[in-house]
Amino acid sequence: EGDIIKIDDDEDADVGTVKYSSGMFWVLPATLFDDCALCEFTECPDYKVEVIGNIYEHPELLEAEEQNDNT
What we know:
Number of helices: 2
Order of helices and strands: EEEEHEH
Strand content: 35-45%
């Protein structure tokens, strides 16, 4: 929980944070892929999931992504 991850499916890439809710880990907000359970990405070979930081030590990664979304 709290990891910032990059999800890439060779066509699009998105950044989201990992949250724990209802007994599962979720990726929020993964805007291109909607809010999805993390297992949906890790069990599918089409998705590459990479931890690029965490919300406590690297909040600027989320700010940079929000700026990219607004342009």
